[in-house]
Specification:
By secondary structure, the chain is α+β, with helices and mostly antiparallel strands. The protein contains 14 helices and 13 strands. It is about 35% helix and about 15% strand. Belongs to the protein kinase superfamily.
């Protein structure tokens, strides 16, 4: 699921200097992403069976739409309000189960979003509605609405102060700490996958490429084998560029380091045109890897020989890259951009760095296992099972949010073991749904 942010151009006024650091960045972003003053308020339309310029929405009239904020091959995203007047983004995924790859990705993302819900730095899903039209299935994902994504902020012409950078990178790594504590690797961390509001609150989104790993607390263990082509090239860790299919959550920390460098320099740190160019640019900044580094980066001797043939370069001093940069920020950058992931710091250690420590609350909550999702991979499930589980995810979200079940939310005709949630209370529905998901995952 792509991020849902308003499409206005961000403007960042300089922040006041007398406010404490952890509040100053937040306050200085007020009115940073405002709609032009001469724009007219869009007409409010009932979403039910109404066209939203790029799609037809079929939802109960508890939601209204104001404007289209995004569209593409994936579907359509609109800004709207719920029945209480709260702003929401509603994304419609048309033909959501038309192919096996996209349906599995959707199911995995819905599961992960449910698993990590409730954290201030992870996107909050308010509702998931699954509708069937003949042989087609449409999925509506309702989330909180934010004003811009971080890519827009970085590309804006106004200044980002050290306090802005501290505030934003703290929230990125704090969100990663929560995601990793659930045993999940994001795998596609980039500025466009983070949404920001005018108070400098940031949330990580788009968990569609995420995967579950067995033990995220043991960083030296490469304990998950993933075969997908993941992470946008500029933020891709060297072990991924070198084709290593055995890696862990440290790929997210490399990406966080790239984003920190981009916040400091207002341009991508490693803007490579292809894999070879990316590796050359990484060598040009963090120096040539040692033989010990190469041994950890890849088991492919051809890949190691490719790196050995590159001219030997020393690591560039971060002060040369970012003259006048904050010392603590540059120390954190160096700790995140390490060839060997065993030396690359994790989220907890990064939050305890001198740059972020003043904002860190060690007692802050980590992910809670509402459902034991140890076998969360969908790889061995058949397409019909995946479709059924997507319907069930919709039912779980709706019962959790207090909406009354309807038969279409519970349509599991090909699997008679699906419980009839509507016969019990919302709490019972949610618990029974978790039990059923756990049972199916145990079969995977």
């Amino acid at each position: 699921m792509t991020c849902t942010a308003m499409d206005s151009s961000p403007q960042l006024p300089s922040g006041p200097s007398s406010i404490p650091a952890h509040r100053r960045a937040s306050d200085s972003l007020e009115e940073s992403i405002s709609t032009p003053q001469n724009s007219k308020a869009p007409e409010v339309l009932d979403l039910r069976n109404k066209s939203a310029s790029c799609s037809v929405f079929e939802l109960a009239n508890r939601y209204t739409v104001k404007k289209v904020i995004g569209k593409g091959a994936f579907g359509c995203v609109v800004a709207g309000e719920d029945e209480f007047g709260n702003p929401v983004a509603i994304k419609k995924l048309s033909h959501a189960v038309s192919d096996s790859r996209s349906s599995r990705r959707l199911l995995r993302e819905l599961r992960f979003l449910r698993h990590v819900r409730g954290h201030p730095n992870v996107i909050s899903v308010e509702d998931v509605v699954v509708k069937q039209r003949g042989g087609e299935v449409d999925v509506y994902i309702v989330t909180e609405l934010m004003e811009a994504d971080l890519e827009q902020i970085i590309k804006s012409s106004q200044a980002l102060t050290t306090e802005h950078v501290r505030c934003l990178i703290f929230q990125i790594i704090n969100g990663l700490r929560h995601i990793h504590s659930a045993g999940i690797v994001h795998r596609d961390l980039k500025p466009a996958n983070m949404i920001v509001d005018s108070e400098c609150r940031l949330k990580i989104c788009d968990l569609g490429l995420s995967r579950h790993i067995a033990d995220p607390s043991v960083s030296q263990h490469y304990d998950a084998k993933f075969t997908d082509y993941v992470v946008t090239r500029w933020y891709r860790a060297p072990e991924l560029l070198l084709g290593n299919r055995i890696y862990d959550h440290k790929v997210d920390l490399w990406a966080a380091g790239c984003i920190l460098g981009e916040l400091l320099g207002r341009k991508a740190l490693f803007k490579g045109s292809d894999t070879g160019d990316m590796l050359r640019k990484q060598v040009g900044v963090i120096g040539s890897p040692s033989e010990a580094d190469l041994a950890m980066l890849t088991g492919d001797e051809a890949a190691r020989n490719y790196m050995r043939k590159m001219p030997v370069r020393p690591r560039v001093n971060s002060f040369e890259l970012f003259p006048g940069g904050d010392l603590a920020a540059l120390e954190l950058l160096d700790s995140l951009l390490q060839w060997d992931s065993r030396r690359r710091i994790g989220a907890d250690e990064a939050l305890r760095s001198s740059f972020l420590l003043e904002l860190f609350e060690p007692a802050s909550s980590l992910a809670t296992n509402h459902c034991e999702l140890a076998a969360i991979s969908c790889g061995s499930l058949g397409s019909e099972q995946v479709t059924n589980l997507i319907f069930l995810e919709g039912a779980l979200w709706r019962t959790r949010s207090g909406h009354r079940c309807s038969p279409i939310d519970l349509e599991m005709r090909s699997n008679p073991r699906v419980p009839h949630f509507c016969a019990c209370s919302c709490g019972q529905k949610f618990r029974r749904g978790c039990d059923f998901l756990q049972h199916l995952e145990g079969l995977a």
